[in-house]
Design a protein that fits this description.
The protein is mainly β. It has one domain: hypothetical protein yedk fold, CATH 3.90.1680.10. The protein is built from 4 helices and 13 strands. The strands form 2 sheets. Strands 2, 4, 5, 6, 7, 10, 11 and 12 form an 8-stranded mixed β-sheet that branches. β8 and β9 form a beta hairpin. The longest helix has 8 residues. The model has no long low-confidence stretch (mean pLDDT 93).
């Protein structure tokens, strides 16, 4: 599962890493967020007519056919790798609209209910984590305004992340970017690959409050009581 993440993205870094040629996301809007929660607007990398661009999207995919109020939408911020190709919520996007969701890291919790300790998982070697994702454009039936939406694909967790949770985001290596975005590779082979090297450390429970997102110290390592 991936329900909280971070992004503090350098514009030049993200353009260079993903070889962006179309830049729909205003440079001034690429603000850091140290506690990204579902329904938040996030930057995603898409490919159209062979060119890549960065666009804003709501974290939580809304299929184009959805007509009910958003309060009735089930949780769609994650899509399971095992069913993403067939589940009605995601199958159209999987077949036609792939994306990459860049991140500086994400949080997971471990421990008994009521006493869960948050941990931060960040890249140990690469500048960013690149999550396999899907995107969809939904039109609000009340306002007729289009909205880009996205989801992160998750698979069975592998070590060391499996010590915290049984699910983890599917992570893409640079060599995966082109075949993933151009629909040349399936999620099956990507989901079983070992994740890129990561660092994991405990962080403050202040991250539990979703609205607390502007504080860079949320990602800092803390010492746990013996």
């Amino acid at each position: 599962m991936c329900g909280r993440s971070t992004h503090k993205l350098s514009w030049d870094e993200i353009v260079r890493l993903y070889n962006l040629t179309l830049q729909h996301f205003p440079k001034s809007n690429l603000e850091p967020n140290y506690n990204v929660a579902p329904t938040t607007t996030i930057p995603i990398v898409i490919e159209q007519e062979g060119k890549r661009g960065l666009i804003p999207a709501r974290w939580g995919l809304i299929p184009s056919w959805w007509k009910k109020p958003l309060k009735d939408l089930p949780a769609t911020f994650n899509a399971r790798a095992e069913t993403v190709a067939t589940k009605p919520m995601f199958r159209s996007a999987y077949a036609k609209r792939r994306c990459i969701i860049p991140s500086n890291g994400f949080y997971e919790w471990k421990g008994p209910k009521g006493k869960k300790q948050p941990y931060f998982i960040s890249p140990a070697r690469d500048p960013l984590l690149s999550f396999a994702g899907l995107w969809e454009q939904w039109k609000d039936p009340e306002t007729n305004m289009p909205l880009n939406t996205a989801t992160i694909i998750v698979a069975a967790a592998q070590a060391p992340i499996s010590s915290l949770h049984d699910r983890m985001p599917v992570m893409l290596a640079p060599d995966d970017f082109e075949p993933w975005l151009s629909l040349k590779t399936g999620i099956e082979e990507l989901a079983v690959r070992p994740p890129q090297p990561v660092n994991i450390w405990p962080v403050s429970t202040r991250v539990n409050k979703a609205g607390n997102n502007g504080d860079e110290t949320l990602t800092q390592k803390i010492q746990l009581a013996a």
